[in-house]
Specification:
Chain lengths: 64, 311
C-alpha cells in the first residue's frame, strides 16, 4: 500500500493488508492526532487497508 | 465498526464518548455540540450579527459553515499575514469557500492585508520588533479582528478555537502560573468596555480530530499545510503531550478544560466580574483608542517599533 504523509509531505510503501490501528503503531503515530482517508472516505482503526490501496494519513493538529 | 446511532458504517470512533458515528450522525453530533456551546455560554442569538475570524484552516472554515447551516448571520474576516506562498494558498481556500458556500447563504468575506497597513509581512515585522513570529501574529490578528468587529457594529466576534487549543493553552498557563491569563480563558468574553467586541469560541466542546473529520465528511476544502512560522511553537508541544495522555485515558482533555471552567465559574460567583475588573484596569490607547492596560496598546507599540529606523 501507498501511504501519503504530511509535515513534511512524503509517500511511503507498507506491506498490506493491515488494519488502520496497526498502521498507526508501525508509523509510531498517536491516533488522536491523525485521520486516515482512503479516496474521500474516513477510515476507523479496525478497518483493513489492502495491499494495493492508497491512503492519506492526515495530521489534525494546528496552531502556534 | 458500525455507527452507534444507525446501521451504517462508522467513519469515526470517539473514544472519549465511547461511541462511533457514520458521516450523517457525526455531522448531526457536531452541529448539536456547537449549538449547545452557543446556548450554554449565552454566546449569541439568531438576531445577532457575527464576525467569524477565518484563516483557511479546518477550524475556522468549519465554524463558518456550521454557523451558516444553523441559520446564523455570519460574515468573515481574513487577515493576510504576507507569509510568502502560505498566505496565498490559505487566502485562496478562504476565497473559494466564501464564493461557493458562504455567498449563496448571503454572507460575505472581508480581507485585511497586513503588508498594506504595516508596510511589511508578519515575518519581517516580528524580526524588526525582536519578538517570536507567533506572538506578533497574535497581537496583530487580535487587534484587527476586534477593530473590524467594533467599527462595523458586529454584535460578537467568533473564533475557531477548539478543545485542544483551550486545553493546551490552559496547560501552558498553569505550567507558568499565569493567573491573569487564567482569568481571561473563557469560551465567552463580554464586551466589557467601550472598544472591546464580545468574543466567543463555539467549537470549544469539539476536539481537533472531530472537527477535521467533520470537514472531510462535509467536503470542506481547507488548507492541511501547517503555518511555516509555527514550527517549534510551544502550543504544539503541549498539544502533543495532551494527545498522548488522551490516548492512554480518553476524555483527559475535556475533563481538564471543562473541570477548569467549572472551578472558574464557582470562583467568579464570589469575586469581581470580568466586566468590573476590565473597567478598573483598562483605558483607551493614546494612539488608536482601543482598550489597553498600558498608555499605548501593544499593537501600536509594535507598529511604532516596526516603523522606527534601526540605529
Amino acid at each position: 500500500m501507498k501511504v501519503h504523509l504530511s509535515h513534511p509531505t512524503r509517500e511511503i510503501e507498507l506491506k498490506g493488508p493491515k488494519p488502520v490501528g496497526e498502521i498507526f503503531k508501525t508509523l509510531n503515530l498517536i491516533p488522536e492526532a491523525f485521520l486516515v482517508i482512503r479516496g474521500q472516505d474516513l477510515m476507523t482503526e479496525d478497518e483493513m487497508v489492502a495491499d494495493g490501496d492508497v491512503i492519506e494519513v492526515r495530521p489534525v493538529i494546528s496552531g502556534g | 465498526m458500525r455507527c452507534r446511532k444507525c446501521p451504517k458504517r462508522a467513519v469515526l470512533g470517539l473514544p472519549r464518548h465511547n461511541t462511533a458515528f457514520c458521516g450523517t450522525c457525526l455531522t448531526e453530533f457536531v452541529r448539536t455540540q456547537v449549538q449547545r456551546a452557543i446556548k450554554s455560554q449565552d454566546m449569541f442569538s439568531p438576531d445577532d450579527l457575527i464576525l467569524v475570524a477565518v484563516s483557511g484552516g479546518k477550524d475556522s472554515l468549519t465554524l463558518w459553515e456550521i454557523l451558516l447551516k444553523l441559520g446564523y448571520k455570519a460574515n468573515a474576516l481574513y487577515v493576510d499575514l504576507g507569509i510568502p506562498g502560505y498566505s496565498e494558498r490559505s487566502r485562496e481556500k478562504v476565497e473559494r469557500f466564501a464564493r461557493e458556500v458562504a455567498e449563496p447563504c448571503g454572507a460575505r468575506l472581508t480581507i485585511h492585508r497586513v503588508e498594506e497597513d504595516a508596510g511589511a509581512g508578519i515575518k519581517e515585522l516580528a524580526t524588526l520588533v525582536k519578538r517570536p513570529t507567533c506572538s506578533a501574529c497574535g497581537t496583530i490578528k487580535r487587534y484587527q479582528f476586534n477593530r473590524v468587529a467594533w467599527k462595523n457594529h458586529y454584535d460578537v466576534m467568533s473564533t475557531g478555537h477548539n478543545l485542544d487549543d483551550e486545553a493546551a493553552r490552559l496547560l501552558g498557563n498553569v505550567l507558568q502560573w499565569q493567573e491573569e491569563y487564567l482569568q481571561k480563558q473563557s469560551p465567552s468574553l463580554p464586551a466589557s468596555i467601550e472598544g472591546f467586541a464580545k468574543k466567543v469560541k463555539p467549537l470549544y466542546r469539539m476536539t481537533e480530530r472531530e472537527i477535521a473529520a467533520y470537514a472531510v465528511v462535509n467536503r470542506i476544502d481547507y488548507l492541511v499545510e501547517e503555518c511555516p512560522m509555527a514550527k517549534g511553537a510551544k502550543m504544539l508541544v503541549y498539544k502533543d503531550v495532551l494527545n498522548r495522555l488522551e490516548t492512554e485515558s480518553p476524555g483527559t482533555k475535556h475533563r481538564f478544560y471543562w473541570g477548569f471552567l467549572d472551578k472558574q465559574k464557582k470562583a467568579a460567583a464570589s469575586s469581581m466580574s470580568m466586566t468590573d475588573i476590565d473597567q478598573a484596569i483598562l483605558q483607551p490607547c493614546t494612539t488608536c483608542s482601543q482598550p489597553t492596560t498600558a498608555g499605548t496598546c501593544s499593537f501600536c507599540r509594535l507598529m511604532t517599533k516596526a516603523k522606527t529606523p534601526a540605529k
